Amino acid sequence: MKRYTLGEEGKTRELAFRGRGWEGVLSHEKGESPVEGRRLGGELSLKLGDRMHRVEPVGEGLYRVDGQLVSIRLRSDLEARFEALGLGGRAEVGGKVELPMPGKVISVLVEEGQQVAEGEGLLIVEAMKMENEIKAPRAGVVRRLAVKAGDELEKGAPLLDIEAEETS
Amino acid sequence: MKRYTLGEEGKTRELAFRGRGWEGVLSHEKGESPVEGRRLGGELSLKLGDRMHRVEPVGEGLYRVDGQLVSIRLRSDLEARFEALGLGGRAEVGGKVELPMPGKVISVLVEEGQQVAEGEGLLIVEAMKMENEIKAPRAGVVRRLAVKAGDELEKGAPLLDIEAEETS
Amino acid sequence: MFSKILIANRGEIVLRVIRTAREMGIRTVAVYSEIDRDSPHVLEADEAVCLGPAPSSQSYLRADRILEEAKRLGAEAIHPGYGFLSENADFARACEQQGLAFIGPTAEVIETMGSKTRARQTMIAAGVPVVPGTESALADPQEAVEVARKIGLPVMIKAAAGGGGKGMRLVEREEELVKAVEAATREAKASFGNGDVYIEKFVARPHHIEVQILADTHGTVLHLGERECSVQRRHQKVVEESPSPFVDEKTRAALCETAVQAARAVGYRNAGTIEFLMDKDRNFYFLEMNTRLQVEHAVTEMVTGIDLVEQQLRVAAGEKLQLSQERIEFRGHAIECRVCAEDCLAGFVPATGRVTAYQPPEGPGVRMDSGLRPGLSIGMHYDPMMAKLICWHGTREGAIARSRRALREFRLRGVTHNLDFCDWVLALPEFVQGDYSTKLLGEHPYSLDHADGEQARAAALWRILHEAEGEVATPPGNGSGKGKGEHSPWYWKHRSL
Amino acid sequence: MFSKILIANRGEIVLRVIRTAREMGIRTVAVYSEIDRDSPHVLEADEAVCLGPAPSSQSYLRADRILEEAKRLGAEAIHPGYGFLSENADFARACEQQGLAFIGPTAEVIETMGSKTRARQTMIAAGVPVVPGTESALADPQEAVEVARKIGLPVMIKAAAGGGGKGMRLVEREEELVKAVEAATREAKASFGNGDVYIEKFVARPHHIEVQILADTHGTVLHLGERECSVQRRHQKVVEESPSPFVDEKTRAALCETAVQAARAVGYRNAGTIEFLMDKDRNFYFLEMNTRLQVEHAVTEMVTGIDLVEQQLRVAAGEKLQLSQERIEFRGHAIECRVCAEDCLAGFVPATGRVTAYQPPEGPGVRMDSGLRPGLSIGMHYDPMMAKLICWHGTREGAIARSRRALREFRLRGVTHNLDFCDWVLALPEFVQGDYSTKLLGEHPYSLDHADGEQARAAALWRILHEAEGEVATPPGNGSGKGKGEHSPWYWKHRSL
Q: What is the pLDDT of residue C489?
């Protein structure tokens, strides 16, 4: 039997699963449901009691269930206990700014050391023939500016860091 | 350079291929064509000069080219030479009768030792709720009858042999 | 309207019903046999229950299990699809008795039309023309000989409870009669649990033409035009079209009016089909009534723009049809090709296998109705029809060209199929001219012709490149490769589009 | 009619043209950049030639290479699709000079309509209403400030040679004007090789409504009704429908008549589109003319039953249109969803990846136009639109329900897509009511809502089962997962169908 927590403090629901491979029983707040996972052509469908669900992974914590996007936070018992001790928990809004799509830097709107407000424009990047403004995820000071106009970059390339004002 | 013969005596065409992997040059009766094989999602398409062809294998010597069935006989140089020496060549219409689809024997219309004409009914087999009559591929005597009514068989199961009259 | 229905069938027709139900906000329950547990019709439903092992008698024909599950899961109605329990009067009656709506006509109508002999009697009484023959089941095979002598050979032997070519035999010579009656009786018993067969005069080179009917419980009976279904192999339809290119305006009016009259005579409700035989002079005779959705209903949907499943659901829920005969408009032309797992070069024997690639055609005027996915196993337990390709165009010529384009664009691997065969049918001169009888395929045996150099070279190259890569030269798929092709230099279907 | 044409484009529109050409017995030549060598538009053509490296300027915009290959291979006409060279007057002129038919209007018409300022002048002269603004390109950014003061803010800055939202900016405050003009100029230069921009008065909460035109060289100019294209993100259309639910019968008659008048005024031939802005009182203003096939042409095809590509080919071959305005019938309602590789939760940024699964929806009223296959790589070089899903039903309500059903049935994995986003759009109250402006998406930012227990449990189970199997728990795909969802307990789009 493996135990899980779905959701966050104040809104969590307990889940428990026992079974082998693609079959088992899921215990949840409304009772128990027999579970069968079914694969056809690389796709996993789930039978939860009598209900059928088509689940496709989309991203970290993001799933398409029956054609609709669902975002969940699932922790195993162990992860939840760590979190209760203050060892886990949700991350701060990061100061590292990365390129969200592959593209070419058209212009850099800020300079190293410049103070920026949350939402202020940092760079203009062209991707698929459209100009996109990359905005500051939080207020702070621009550090480690790593790109210049004309650079062609892959998705995820580090652009610059924004150091929070209180730490600078 | 590998050489091949396409077709049969009196109607053959010579082909030669030189190249590596999925690219090369094909020499044929109309000249030479550069060749590129292209794979997308497990499917092979061919670029023969400027012409595109979508080729799907369907069975032994049978292909679906641009959506149409094409049957070819292709021999390498070595195979063709063996054949010229009388060591290859086309097979006699066989005397072995096999089940062409999975099914259940409903009734056996002939007995061991019985003389049958070409096209005469041998067995009735039910597959997908339809009765199908299996007919004699040639005239002869029924031997090695291996099935009885009620048998559920896989595709290709041996049913009986028909020995040619001249050999019996 | 219902909030949940159970669909007592398998394969593409279940998906067809799920789609419309979902658009109407109705939840769906699928049923399945053990072997179908990973089939698309199960995976796409909102809920699903297993009925039992693979044989239909232990799963899809288990009326008791189906009713039990429908009630347990709170379904309010049962859609029977086609085949299986769709024309089973006892099942329809059991549904109503247990408070579930049966999406079909009343049990009495199914009984009347389900017995071909009783249907004939009813139609004669209603003034609908029928083919001469016995009016009741044969007492014994010898009776067949007497009747045949009276009405003249050739004759057709048909299962009284039958349909879909099962339990059906054409007899041209008197000495074949008894053997044929026996075989038809056996097949009828196996397929329908009822071995009754009867005899009809055989109409030479007939057209198989049917009229789509839609009737509600408030007295409205409409027709949605006719379909030509004369392209048949093994007595089963393979290509259908609407409208029929053979029927002229005057005949169409009389034919459709007769069909409405026939449906009215039995107090019909639901979508239904009146099948007729039509001879070369366009005389038509009642053949049978199908008291359910037909496989080929989609060609009518494309021409009329009316969703027949939606109308079935509305009628079953007691609604009044929001259509009138005058407002039903017919636009353009639609052709359906039934995509089957079968080896057409080896006499259309059913094939089995596992789908390794499925890429349906797309673009204007193309509709797919399938239950296919890569990975799906096509077994021997059920009907070999895997999918339907339906193409529409403003003109019949355009609909043919579009169907042929779509067939060639269609990729389906891992199981031997009839896509090339359908393309060949659509190029037959009689088909192109629009005057073909049910004899069409008997008169044109399917085989391969000589290939042109370019296409043969491409096929050869496939082999050469795979050999060069050290891959297995013998391709996958369970095509038998039997037929003329095997012993010939190179063949292909030479039919320019 | 032509026996061979070259299609100077890539992706779904090439397949769209190949399909109709094949149905008409016309052979097709595809062109491609090195990175597109294994793309479906190449593999499905009869012949194909490589133009050069991935950047459009070195491949799909290489007019010289395209003409050279068309002549070498014996193509008689060039279909430009949309984008790329489709509205390039020099290319059209070069085609005609070298004896190749350009499947579009004359170079002069492209020039006139391609310059937004000249198009405005022409329309004013023809009596077609236009939005107040500059009639010629801005001399410098400062001029923008003067014009804006005269006609009043807010204003739109637009590329004179533009289209598709490129080089376009809305400015509401005067201090933003100069920066916006500069950015638009840069973008215009990069996209169209022409940095001219102009200013127009901004119509508040406008509807973007366009009329489909079809004109031959024999003086026939027809309209095929209007399309509502107001659902836009990043100034680009994402959901379109026909007819517009906002346009009433009286407005429709005036609008379509005006469009015919506009096309006549320039001596138009080919399929074309006149775009209008319509305000809340249903006053309409000429916006621009697209002298080519539109992405969204398929909704018009489904409603009218007319194949626009077929008509384009006939017109280009000099045939007279076999249609008349009275005989064009409009049936039911069609909606198109553009399926794009983009991360809608992260502000619609384009996404890249490799398609691992593609299972398009099927069934009644569903049309797919895609260039997708499992294994296809979606790169950063071209437009992120991968496919179009077009759904038809007899009623608008039914067309919405069908589109939503089809979107949910659609499986596409390996690249982040907007299927869920489109489903969310179709459920917005303004969309359902049929009165929405181009502001719709700005007023309704897309995000995830709370999920219900059942769906959240299913998602959780997916993770649990994969962990149990020892598989990688982090799923594939390059969805960033950014957005509200990431920091929330569990969310989903709660919108019952």
A: 44
